[in-house]
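Researcher: Re-running this chain for the archive, since the previous output was lost when a drive failed. Same request as before.
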Amino acid sequence: MQNVILLPGLASDATIWLGQLPVLATRHRVHVTDVHFRFDTLPEMAAALLAECPGPLVLVGASMGGMLAL
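Model: Regenerated structure tokens:
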């Protein structure tokens, strides 16, 4: 199973992914991160994300979550 990390946009939270979560969870370990609420810069967010979710990851981002994924 792959680790799929869902990254909401700056003004969003986990509710943006409610439609995708049930389907993704049937085939993957899925986590919705909130690092964008806890840190101020993209480098800080990325470092926290990688510390909290080790291992190979599939990153899926919307809006600023997409920038964080890059």
